Amino acid sequence: MPLPLRRFEKDPQALEELLRTGQVRRALLPAPALLLPTGVAALDTALGGGLVRGHLHELVAPAGAGGTALLRAALGSATRSGELCALIDPADSFDPAHAGIDLRRLLWVRPRDPLQALRAAEIALEARFALVAVDLGEIAFAKRKAPPGQVGQVRLVRFEARRQNSTPGGSPWARLARRAEKHGGVLLVLVRESQAGAFALATVELERGPALWEGRPGAPGRFLRGGSAVGAVARHKRLAPSGPIALSLPVA
User: In the chain, what are the domain boundaries?
Assistant: First the structure.
């Protein structure tokens, strides 16, 4: 029997119950409130409208490919729409003078190391920030054997593909994905190489493109106006991978 649509207008909890029990799949419902735009229209289209609340998203970009610019664009879009955001910045690389982000709605956290960064992300998700952005682009993760007595600590900052000694659910990415799902926040993680794997709802990959100059080649007084990159949604649990996306990026 068809579901009475008028019922949901008066009782939204009935629809939530259908979503929770799996009778209706969330991906098939037009629900703009569940999405946070990245601020880049072409990327939002490839993501089905934007970043999905309650999920981990991974942004994989080498240095100079625009990963930081996209992270800032997402923070700017969210804060301008009135959302509260947190930026976890262990490398202390964020410039608060950068235009486009409403700093009144941004919590800037500068942890000492990756271990503290991941814990700070958990706390921010538990505090119900709408977008928690973690900039790990300048962090080199250790790939070493755990010294005696420090197995639990080192496991949290080791991200090898092979985890023979790890316990089920022991991955920090699994824990962060569960926190995002439980508290309804978007977790956006910038890394140089993919780390979260299957724990991410979507993985966006960027490649560096040519710089954008103003003026004739070889002429004096040319100005660097920005950079370019080619991006793609390499993997998405609900959508097909996208084709190449040309991106123009402002100078930081």
Answer: 32-208+232-243
Contacts for 117 with CB less than 8 Å, ≥ 6 apart: 88, 90, 111, 134, 136, 139
Contact 212, 236 (CB under 8 A): no
CA-CA distance, 204 to 57, in Å (whole number)? 8
Which residue do the tokens 């022991």 mark?
Answer: 170
**CA 109 to CA 121: how far, in whole Å?**
9
pLDDT in tens, 27-36: 443 444 689 9
Query: Residues 230, 233, 235, CA angle at the centre, nearest 5°?
Result: 140
Q: Report yes or no: 19 and 26 within 8 Å, Cβ to Cβ.
A: yes
Q: Could you give the CA distance from residue 49 to residue 35 in angstroms, rounded to a whole number?
A: 7
Residue 48, both tokens: 């089905």
Phi, psi of 132 (to 5 degrees): -115, 110
Rg of the chain over all Cα atoms, to the nearest angstrom = 20
Tell which residue, 185, 236, 183, 184, has the closest CA to residue 74. 185
What are the residue ranges of helices labelled H in 61-162? 67-80, 114-126, 151-155
Decide yes or no: CATH 3.40.50.720 for domain 32-208+232-243. Answer: no
Tens-digit pLDDT profile for residues 148-200? 444 333 333 333 333 344 343 468 999 999 999 999 999 999 999 999 999 99
The dihedral region occupied by 59, where left means phi > 0, alpha psi between -120 and 50, and beta the remainder, is beta
Q: How far is residue 60's CA from residue 66's CA, in Å, rounded to a whole number? A: 10
Name every residue whose Cβ is closer than 8 Å to that of residue 244 and which is 6 or more positions away in sequence: 230, 231, 232
Contact 134, 189 (CB under 8 A): yes
